[in-house]
Specification:
About 55% of the residues lie in helices and about 5% in strands. The chain is mainly alpha-helical and about 375 residues long. A hairpin with a 2-residue loop joins strand 1 and strand 2 (about 25-30). Helix 5 crosses helix 13 (about 190-205) and helix 13 crosses helix 16 (about 245-260). The longest helix has 22 residues, at about 45-65. The relative contact order is 0.12.
């Protein structure tokens, strides 16, 4: 019942999507094929690299616009990041005909839909009880249907082309394919935007951390001035981002650990006894709460409930020799899920967020203002 309510799918569409189709690689339903597509085109490789370049080039335009204010500007940082992330990410996915670039109101529609998700899933008569979210969903479906009718997907990423081709192979109509695209957008934007926001807040709220990351950036980038002007330009080598920005990457991982409270669900396939004490009966559902695991002192140490930007760094012993990193259980970090539900977009999200944060801290100073707009507020 979840997908029909979430994406407003009719019975015919659900039957088509759940009916296995013989493909060159095998026979399975649309959910399996979609998962294969996501992992194929969002995994390391040329398709992912092209998406990353597109997203970060678009982000750079937002930074240039922000930097054109000679005396600085007072803005709602979360709202600004939300717009920049929405347009940059969807440009990478949907190409030059991206409806989010052409229709600015779709950004707000996306977040209105996200806000009403629970009511859309659980409340009776969602068109009444979750009216704002239902209207926002209809607005998105209309825009995406027009995009597909005008063949915008032909100028899009390999990911979008493959998803469209799969929808056609399973007999879906264009409006039905447009509805399934809601899931793609949800996965790309709903978590990435607040993660980038909190990452920057943690960096700028600690002067020492900000200074250390900027110092790290100064050794991880190089000056580039092709026109031999007096303007300084810096190049960030994206493929080696994690290696060149270890503190920034550690801060990013800690931001995910500290703020991610998602949960994973699994069905028990056979009676299982855990620790000779807990019986999990076949057919029951087990939920894995990420927030509880991320704050467990037995996993993360006595400071598990505190933010430690250096938690994921390798400690360095005297003489510069690297100590062995303390290894957590592989299931302890749940920000991207795990197992068969491991988020296929984790590579794209990590590169986009960390590179955008690196570009931001190298260009801008940030301070808080109080309710009247005067400096001296608290970054939080």
């Amino acid at each position: 019942m979840m997908l029909p309510r979430l994406f407003d799918l009719d019975r015919k569409t659900m039957k088509l999507a759940s009916t296995p189709v013989a493909l060159p690689e095998g026979r399975w339903d649309l959910a399996v094929e979609t998962g294969r597509i996501m992992h194929r085109y969002l995994g390391p490789g040329p398709s992912l690299e092209k998406m990353e370049r597109t997203a970060l080039t678009r982000f750079l335009g937002f930074f240039d616009e922000l930097g054109s204010e000679p005396d600085g500007i007072i803005l709602d940082l979360f709202a600004w990041l939300r717009r920049a992330m929405t347009v940059s990410s969807t440009d990478a996915i949907y190409g030059s005909e991206n409806p989010f670039s052409k229709q600015a109101e779709l950004e707000q529609a996306l977040w209105d839909w996200e806000h009403d998700l629970t009511r859309l899933l659980l409340a009776p008569f969602p068109s009444i009880t979750a009216r704002k979210g239902a209207l926002a969903r209809s607005q998105f479906i209309t825009a995406m249907t027009a995009y597909l009718h005008h063949k915008g997907h032909e100028q899009a990423s390999d990911l979008t082309k493959a998803r469209y081709k799969a929808g056609i192979a399973y007999g879906l109509s264009i409006p039905a394919i447009a509805r399934f695209e809601i899931g793609s957008i949800m996965g790309v934007l709903v978590n990435s935007t607040p993660t980038l926001f909190w990452l920057l807040i943690h960096i700028y709220s600690s002067p020492q951390l900000l200074a250390d990351i900027r110092a790290e950036a100064s050794t991880a980038t190089w000056n580039y001035d092709e026109a031999r002007t007096t303007e300084t330009k810096f190049i960030v080598h994206i493929p080696s981002l994690k290696q060149r920005f270890p503190l920034l990457y550690s801060t990013y991982q800690e931001t995910l650990r500290f703020h991610t409270h998602n949960s994973s669900s699994r069905m028990v396939m056979q009676d299982t006894l855990l620790a000779n004490r807990y019986l999990l009966e076949k057919g029951s559902i087990v939920q894995i709460p990420g927030g509880s695991i991320h704050s467990d002192p037995s996993v993360w140490g006595v400071d598990a409930t505190s933010f430690n930007a250096r938690r994921f760094l390798n400690a360095t012993a005297a003489g510069g020799r690297e100590k062995e990193k303390v290894r957590q259980h592989p299931g302890a970090f749940r920000s991207f899920g795990g197992g068969v539900s491991l988020c296929p977009g984790r590579h794209f999200a990590t590169t986009e967020i960390c590179a955008a944060a690196a570009m931001f801290v190298m260009r801008f100073d940030v301070g808080a203002v109080d309710a009247s707009g005067r400096e001296g507020g608290e970054l939080r």
